[in-house]
Input
Amino acid sequence: MSTSPSSVPAAASDGTRPGAPGGLPGSAAAPEVLQVAGLRVAYGGNNALDLERLSLRQGEVLGVVGANGAGKSTLVNAIAGWSRGTPRVSGTVRLDGVDVSALPAHRRARAGLLLVPEGKLVFGQMSVDENLTVPGDVHDAPGRHVYDREEVFELFPRLRERRGHLGSQLSGGERQMLGIGRALMLGPRVLMLDEPSIGLAPRLVSAVLETMRTLAGKGLTILLVEQNVRAAIEVVDRLVLLERGRVIVEGTASEMRDDPRIAEAYLGGGHG
Ligand SMILES: Nc1ncnc2c1ncn2[C@@H]1O[C@H](COP(=O)(O)OP(=O)(O)O)[C@@H](O)[C@H]1O
Ligand SMILES: [Mg+2]
Output
């Protein structure tokens, strides 16, 4: 588990790189920002996740795909330190080389490990503007940018148009943008998204996922959980296929496109 010296944020000037031919996510020289080792999660006696190793380099978009129940949410929840029910979690999570495994969720979030959950983390009884008012005690740090509301509106102009509406009045796509916007205002080092495409019209799916490329182009490290393999493969650098809590296959997006196991997942899980 070595952390390469963090010299250049390699992905910063790359622009978009859909499909990442050649698969050089954030370039091989970019430092590993997130490292997960020996992560096991069990609910009662049932193993939901058994992951030997997973790492993300700065500026990389890693997709984790798999059918319903494969363990995708369990994975990002465990990395974020969230627990639904009472799972037994063991293993190590390192952020920029620092072991955060013992930290509770809010401390991991403060360190920049941010999850936009399936429920999207939006307050229904607050307006878009109010949702985009985040306690201002986070500040820019190397590799972390704390977005302000204006910057979120630049990324998602639709939210500016809807700024006076309540969270509960937004469409699924707008709620997703708002959830991502809130996370960006907390200065993510790693942004994790749990099925951002779920319930969205196909046009919005591409819009939201393309935004991930924009953010990664600025050096943000992204872990994207998706059941929609077809959409995910268009924007990720690398793809991991989970099945019953285990990694079945992983590789660059271009490698994975031709993998029969991925093709099977397309047919099985890809909606849209
Ligand atoms: N709170 C919980 N209590 C018991 N079992 C759970 C709980 N959450 C998830 N599981 C089980 O863990 C496995 C993985 O679930 P999950 O991570 O939600 O899958 P995915 O997000 O890929 O659909 C499933 O078998 C699911 O039934
Ligand atoms: Mg899930």
The first helix runs from residue 72 to 80.
